[in-house]
Amino acid sequence: MMTELINEFTSEPKIAYFSMEIGVRSDMPTYSGGLGILAGDTIKSAADLSLPIVAVTLLTKKGYFKQEIDLFGRQHEHPESWNPSDFMQMMPQRAIVKIEGRSVQVAPWLYVVQSAAGGKVPMLFLDTDLPENSEQDRGITHHLYGGDDIYRLKQEIVLGIGGYNLLEQIGFEIKKYHMNEGHSSLLTLQLLNKFKKNIEDVWDEKHIWDYKSVRRLCVFTTHTPVAAGHDKFSYDVVQQVMGTDIIPLNVIKEYGGNEHLNLTMLALNLSKYVNGVAKKHKEVSKDMFPGYEIHAVTNGVHSFTWTCEPMKRLFDKYLPGWANEPEIFVRVGRIPDEELWAAHMEAKKHLIDYLNRQTQTGMNYDTFTIGFARRATAYKRADLLFSNIDRLLQSAEGRVQIIYAGKAHPRDEHGKQLIEKIFEIKERLKDKIKIAYLNNYNMELSLKIVSGVDVWLNTPLRPLEASGTSGMKAAHNGVPNFSVLDGWWIEGHIEGYTGWAIGPSAETPADPSRDADDLYYKLDHIILPMFYENRHLWVRVMQNAIGKNAYYFNSHRMMRRYVTEAYIR
Ligand SMILES: *Cc1c(COP(=O)(O)O)cnc(C)c1O
Asked: 2-300+559-567 and 310-553 share one CATH topology?
């Protein structure tokens, strides 16, 4: 069975898509958030479009973490152990990577993403938890984003170098290496090695490294608009953990940075095609990395995955074929207003019932409901809505209910404090505004929330949201965005038509102090009156969220762009 399948997969050249995290299903906790879910949506669209892709990622057998929030809003983290053999099969091949001088074995598990349209994409989940390895090495692929610098570098060796070797051993012929973020960029060292020339042929030490051949094969997508977010290692750590068997240190320094090994720089220097994940993010990346040519492919989400059941039924009825051709959303006007509203109310009831069971908040179906779910971290400003509580109460008391969810990274103290702060305000306001914070944000909960609220709120500090994708999920369910003009929303926003902006236009400088005022003003004067008093107009905005936003911000369009702009060039 396995051999046949592998032969099928290795029979044609493939694009190898490398990502530290890939989330393809909610019950396989191999993702932490946006980056991993985007990677999962990428693979699903590749399968739907029958693109020749193979994905490589880490197994993370203990997941990211399971979030428990106590009565005081304090986050507690538990391992989220799962059983890979429930979903996939271990393959017989082994890569051997050198870590701290030891030979560490890396095994691939094969998971196949099978599209209803017939396409299949193989995914390799890399695992070091093997009896052949020492206790400490068995843990390398346990925790996503756990541990310290050294742990991270070990994971990146397993991903980049181990992953590269396994593709070769299994017999894949690779025509491009696509690095989703810099975590996997050590694979370029393997490529430098592969294309190394003989000294007799070039007569000069410098020219034995054929970096041009490496660059032709590599595609790099950067996701992080702040310099501090890029993985950097001191060369002492590099020497100690990775060694320089593969490539001499002076060559690593030439491409990866003189002072530190910066995995983003390594990927930038050795990729012919580099892109940011929204048009604005491309500009921000160019400022951060002057001298590099950087393109933009704006993110998208997998339409079928991110549409709730009632909307799927409606789309099947009026827009057949939508899931594999989201351009069909252009005809959203064929859906009768009442039916669109009814599907939305079905999704909303489903969410509110779930929430009331979980939290005993007593929310109701008819009150305007704001959703805010994303990683709890400072720049996302989950508390912007509470900047001026009196002002909020003036417009929202009795007329608004608010649903939150999101995990803080275990070492993000500020993010954890944000959750506590929202808990404290939730208690303080409980007789005036119903607020709930749902536990353990994951893909399943995400779909419930993005489809069941009335508006999707996003309040990042500009320009720190490279793209953002949860708003695209909301749009697929007819839920309009109410968001700061950053990331994808700069491209998706038409004021009062697809949703609403918070704060100044994208062309003018950020003014964070004005954002809250603008939020209150629009909520009070535009959004709430339209929702409660002009349902017809409200449904028009819902329709435009689908016809204008979901139409474009889907991963099918994104993958067609990667094919034409990055893969076949
Ligand atoms: C979509 C999603 C994200 C990313 O949302 P952003 O808007 O990009 O922050 C994070 N976590 C989960 C569980 C998601 O489904």
From this structure: yes
Nearest Cα to Cα of residue 403 among 431, 441, 377, 460: 441
Distance of CA 498 to the CA centre of its chain: 23
Query: Is there an atom of ligand 1 within 6 Å of 406 CB?
Result: no
Q: Is the CB of 282 under 6 A from ligand 1?
A: no
158 token code pair: 């397993």
CA–centroid distance, residue 181 to ligand 1 (Å): 16
Task: Per-residue pLDDT tens, the chain, 569 aa: give them.
Answer: 788 889 999 999 999 999 999 999 999 999 999 999 999 999 999 999 999 999 999 999 999 999 999 999 999 999 999 999 999 999 999 999 999 999 999 999 999 999 999 999 999 999 999 999 999 999 999 999 999 999 999 999 999 999 999 999 999 999 999 999 999 999 999 999 999 988 888 877 778 999 999 999 999 999 998 887 788 999 999 999 999 888 999 999 999 999 999 999 999 999 999 999 999 999 999 999 999 999 999 999 999 999 999 999 999 999 999 999 999 999 999 999 999 999 999 999 999 999 999 999 999 999 999 999 999 999 999 999 999 999 999 999 999 999 999 999 999 999 999 999 999 999 999 999 999 999 999 999 999 999 999 999 999 999 999 999 999 999 999 999 999 999 999 999 999 999 999 999 988 888 888 999 999 999 999 999 999 999 999 999 999 999 999 999 999 999 999 999 999 98
From the CA of 467, give the closest atom in ligand 1.
Answer: 8
Give me the residue spans of the domains in the chain.
2-300+559-567, 310-553
Q: CATH second-level architecture of 2-300+559-567? A: 3-Layer(aba) Sandwich (3.40)
Atom of ligand 1 nearest to the CA of 32: 11
Q: Are 172 and 10 in contact (CB under 8 A)?
A: yes
The type of residue at 97 is V
The DSSP letter of residue 95 is: E
110 CA from centroid of ligand 1 (Å): 25
Mention every residue, 6+ apart, whose C-beta is less than 8 A from residue 48.
115, 116, 117, 119, 304, 323, 324, 556
β-bridge mates for residue 400, sequence order: 368
Q: 208 CA distance to ligand 1 centroid (A)?
A: 44
Which overall architecture, per CATH, does domain 310-553 show? Answer: 3-Layer(aba) Sandwich (3.40)
For the Cβ of 481 lying below 6 angstroms from any atom of ligand 1, the answer is no
Contact 464 CB / ligand 1 (< 6 Å): no
d(CA 540, CA 478): 10
Give the number of the atom of ligand 1 that is nearest the alpha carbon of residue 34: 4
| pTM of the complete model beyond 0.90 | yes
